[in-house]
Amino acid sequence: VNAASAVGDLGLWVLSLLVLLGAVPSLLTVYQFVLVAAHRWRDHLRDEDVSLTELPRVAVVVPAWNEEPVLRLSIDRMMAMDYPSDRLRVAIVDDASTDETPALMAAKQQEYPGRVVHLRRAQGGQGKAHTLNHGLRELLADDWAEAVLITDADVVFEPTCVRRLVRHLGDPKVGAVTAFIEEASEHPNWMNRFIGYEYAVAQAAGRRAQNVAGAQGCLAGGAQLHTRENIDALGGAIDTTTLAEDTVTTFLTQIDGRRVIFDGNAHCYAEEPSDVVGLWKQRLRWSRGNVQVARRFKNVFFRPSRRHSLGGLWIGLMWWATLLLPALMVCSCVALVVLWSFNKDHAHVVFTRLWIFNALAFIFTTTFAVIIEPRIGRRCWRQAVMFPGLLSLLIMVAVIAPRPMRSLLVHVLSSVGIGWNDTTKSYLALAAYIWVAVSMVAAWLIYRLDKTKRVGWLVAPLVYLVGYGPLLCAITFSAYIAEARGAAATWDKTEKTGKVSAG
Amino acid sequence: MTHPSGTERDARRELRDDRRIERRLVWKGIFALLVAAAVGWLRQRYWM
């Protein structure tokens, strides 16, 4: 009997630990924000490194395929950059566009003689990385460029952005610098605002924390400044074998011993997807790219090195926790249900502790993220609050304020004729336990619904109910499946309208 | 130098401004921590 009891206790402990795996992402995010607060003490810039008399000659490379509507604005903004005009050159690498791009480029070359270059590929369709490499080959053929800024056609730069980025190149250890890309649709809808908040967390906070940790996970595809030496060391070209060429560039740069820096005060603006289908298409590509990168660099993580900090504990944990987030959530939910089937009281205790921690972590990180960039906070605070979804918020309120919530529930249930008894409590508890896993399935169903284009008005309320976070988890889960079955890796361009409100 | 506004002084001022923003992050972090701690205290004190 004693042996059976010991095995039972051990089982409960193992199940409890599996349930608490659901707190790992929150724990890492809290630590990330602690690192953000420490950012001021990891400033590698010295006053003597910052000079305007020795600004490098910067070649801006813009891959473009049928981007005429957005290029019109972005070229003008680049030409108006607060940077010496004889030291900034823009090359539009036209991937055989079939729209009005050639005509626009002819006009822009006349308007800005010698400063705007049109590099047109005779045959296109190979994807962004190949287009970029065509531009890099042309630009590095002579020795004019001392630094290369890789960006996207729709990205609009704040006038001081490049000047802020080049400051870091005064440090000879730096190979590349990336800027903060804000979601800045002129008339943002709910989806744009969710993405705007997500970028504040992932970039303004996440990349600052990575600066402190000494390694960056990814250079922003739309704003990455490289020294010429770095591009040369990468073979004069970027990776074309994965869907995450920016991440591969970031890893290779750091593995080779050159630092990658994020400058949170160098801002630029971009237009992001405005519906679930657009988001799914974009993020599935990113997530699949991350799975490919994890496979390619599996020997880099958790292996400290003198040359780089990618092998650091927190960087590895953050990378894998993000990639494995859906699996962690499902594992936590399944363990909780199994625990519930054996011992309801114990399941309740573990669940309450997990959610109290998650709720307080959510309050800390959301408050911090909203005030990191006050302008974004004002624009997106509703989406910040609703990020986990209304139902998850209700669960958080239930564990944080159990007494008032119980009174409310009893009142609501009795008004629809349901009594507050053990059976009701048991079903409600089970529903709360499985919600995190179910929310991912619900998010996938919302995507399918959005694809039908039938009840478009219903999509936004459903995302608010289910949550934007679960939507991202569902996309990551979908990426596992796509990679496991070896689905074709195609480059799906995100449609842009050229309506960006800059600054 | 061909751009009218590009001066050494601007660069130094920008750097100072940016460092001020980074310094403020410490206080923002402390504020966020206090908010979370206050909610935790309210839970223990009134909502249990």
Q: Strand-and-helix sequence of chain A, N→C?
A: HHEHEHEHEEHEHEHHEHHHHHHHHHH
Oligomerization category of the chains in this entry: heterodimer
Classify the secondary structure makeup of chain A into a structural class.
Answer: alpha/beta
Termini distance of chain A?
Answer: 70 Å
Beta strands of chain A, count: 8
Please report the total strand number of chain B as a whole number: 0
The poorly predicted ranges of chain B are none
Task: Please provide a written account of the structure.
- The complex is a heterodimer of chains A (503) and B (48).
- Chain A has 503 residues and is α/β, with parallel strands linked by helices.
- Chain A has helices at residues 2-20, 24-37, 68-79, 101-111, 128-139, 161-166, 190-213, 228-233, 245-255, 276-296, 313-323, 325-342, 344-372, 374-386, 390-400, 402-415, 422-452, 456-466, 468-484; strands at residues 58-64, 88-94, 116-120, 147-151, 156-157, 174-183, 223-227, 259-270.
- In chain A, strands 3-2-1-4-7-6-8-5 form an eight-stranded mixed sheet, sandwiched between helices.
- In chain A, strand 1, helix 3 (68-79) and strand 2 form a beta-alpha-beta unit.
- Chain A is globular and about 80 Å long.
- The relative contact order of chain A is 0.13.
- Chain B is mainly α and 48 residues long.
- In chain B, 83% of the residues lie in helices and 0% in strands.
- Chain B starts with 7 loop residues before the first helix and ends with a helix.
- At the A-B interface, helix 2, strand 8, helix 13 and helix 16 of A face helix 1 of B.
